[in-house]
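ok posting inputs for the coenzyme A job
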Amino acid sequence: MGMLIIDARPLMPEVLQELVPTSMHENIQNISKLVRQWTEGESLFDGEGEELRVAQIGGSTVGVGGVVKCRDFSGALRVTRFYVHPEFRNRGIATAIAVHLIKNASQFADAVTCNAQASVQATPFWESLGFLRIEHPGITHKLQIDKTLQI
Ligand SMILES: CC(C)(COP(=O)(O)OP(=O)(O)OC[C@H]1O[C@@H](n2cnc3c(N)ncnc32)[C@H](O)[C@@H]1OP(=O)(O)O)[C@@H](O)C(=O)NCCC(=O)NCCS
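and the output
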């Protein structure tokens, strides 16, 4: 069955409901936090270059990822809130979301950063996309946009 990568914003927060219990079950806080910050109007992914996308298969949400302004590096965006349902991992879903977001980000930014401390899978995932380790509080990796264009 085909996968769609769609704009989550018009469908928030209901579009993430399927991912809330599974993420909480594995003690990952980023989806509950995303829903809470959206509901409170604190993080709406509506700045320049910002986006929130979900991957759907057969009408069900199986993954999510976003991009926001990076406060630490001027001219950079930051990927955030990545999560794929455990039953759908290791089949390229997060890669498809990330490639979409990074291509879009390349119109607005010269670099993309991330914080890969959320789980053991996060570091190899971001490094598979060409992100390089950096030493910076709250940021673990950075991707220069010219490398992105080669994805
Ligand atoms: C990290 C996460 C989003 C990856 O999602 P995914 O859809 O399984 O990722 P992909 O299938 O696109 O993986 C792409 C590459 O990442 C790397 N990777 C992903 N999971 C990995 C793992 N468990 N171990 C080692 N490498 C891994 C691999 O290089 C993989 O490429 P390959 O399959 O050709 O080897 C997912 O594991 C997840 O939701 N984890 C919990 C939440 C989290 O850590 N979010 C990230 C916050 S920064």
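notes: The longest strand covers residues 60-69. Strands lie at 3-7, 51-57, 60-69, 76-84, 111-114, 132-136, 139-144.
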